[in-house]
Design goal:
Blueprint lengths: L1 H16 L3 E6 L1 H4 L2 H16 L3 E6 L2 H10 L6 E2 L2 E2 L3 H25 L4 E5 L6 E5 L3 E4 L6 E4 L5 E6 L2 H8 L3 E5 L1 E3 L5 E3 L2 H11 L4 E6 L17 E3 H10 L6 H13 L4 E6 L5 H7 L6 E4 L1 H10 L2
Parallel strand pairs: 1-2, 1-13, 2-10, 5-10, 13-15, 14-16
Antiparallel strand pairs: 3-4, 6-9, 7-8, 11-12, 15-16
Helix pairs in contact: 3-5, 4-5, 7-9, 8-9
Amino acid sequence: MEDIGILKQALPYFKEYKGKTFVIKVGGELVQEYRVIDGIAQDVSLMHQTGIRTVLVHGGGPQANELSQRLGITPKIVGGRRVTDEEALEVTKMVFAGKINHEILTLIQKHGSSAVGLSGIDGSMIVARRRAPMEITDRATGETNNVDYGHVGDIREVNVGLLETLLSEGYVPVISSLADDGEGNILNINADTVASRLAVALGAYKFITMTNVNGVLKNRDDPESKISYISKKQAERLIEEGTLAGGMVPKVQTCLDAVKGGVKRVHILNGFEKDSLLKEVFTKKGVGTMILTDEDAEEYGARGY
């Protein structure tokens, strides 16, 4: 009977979300464990089969680090972002557009949905320019250094015509975060940024980031201090105060970019928790943190949903 109650709770959401577009970003740390990514693929397939137009963007940092080390290449991360020299670019192409993309495709199709593997290069989906060297300040030490990120790009154009075609034909696009500059050069783009920009360009109703933390935390040392929902202004204050640190800062910033770009609901949740995606989407309580515009957060707080 408990299962029936859960189904009844989910039914209104099936109706509300049918035909809407969700963009889901899956961190590379989740892809490392078969059980975890298989469960996420099953949840994505179920959402797709309820009529939600679903796009999945994946990272692959841990896998790129692992292959780099096996090849005798030392990975370099500055400010939560990967420095991509010539050797690192070759590793990134092999891991992102090859190994990980195909593994996720296979699992989604195992669970009954048709998926298509892409990178940002396909159909000129993501066109970027190589990032100029920039000054980066370490929040912990206050030290500032000039950093050249190498073959890392900043997005200058997003084209979603190919994605719209695939979505209208009933496919789940699975996208790796490579792009080109229109002049024959391949660039590595942060996967959170790719997912956020695609969510805005597609007019997505939800942008969901699945990572290895429970959401936005009041105390980063206490995983139980998760904030259930938060306004844009409150999230910005947490960054300014230093409550958020390390890789969580750019992750939340890309979520805020999606909110500013018109995405109605932006979520951060722990992908290692079983069925977390379905719980976040189809239950009132959810399991992660939802980020809203200041106006929507106030209305949400008053209504409770």
